[in-house]
Amino acid sequence: QVQLVESGGGLVQTGDSLSVSCAVSGRTFSSFAMGWFRQAPGKEREFVAAISRSGGSTQYPDSMKGRFTISRDRAKNTVYLQMSSLKPEDTAVYYCAATASPTISGVYYRADDYRHWGQGTQVTVSS
Predict the structure, then answer these.
(1) 8-62 tens-digit pLDDT
(2) How far apart are CA 24 and CA 3, in angstroms?
(3) CA distance 59 to 41
(4) How far is residue 118's CA from residue 127's CA, in Å, rounded to a whole number?
(5) Which stretches of 1-127 are assigned E, i.e. beta strand?
């Protein structure tokens, strides 16, 4: 059974940086393309970042380019989301997601493309 466990969320101030992690178990990590999504209270789940199986391709929405960076560590079976210049509107529960990708370069930005999800980690940015 595939398990995704996020960690690293917390309370930070505007302008701070924060990194969240997602440890994957139960299946070969390199078979998964990975993604990060977030959901704020009263809002729909929002795409944050995606990375291919190889790690060579990434994708971000325009609003997060330059502030958020996704990466993966094959040795640790972990995907990371490094966030900088955080704003109060970045406050949300951040979820990682995994999908078995048929190609090493595919990236996926739709939540429906992902089969496996973590439980989420809360990130709160105070003003």
Answers:
(1) 999 999 999 999 999 999 889 999 999 999 999 999 999 999 999 999 999 999 9
(2) 6
(3) 24
(4) 28
(5) 3-7, 10-13, 18-25, 32-39, 46-51, 58-59, 68-73, 78-83, 92-100, 116-117, 121-126
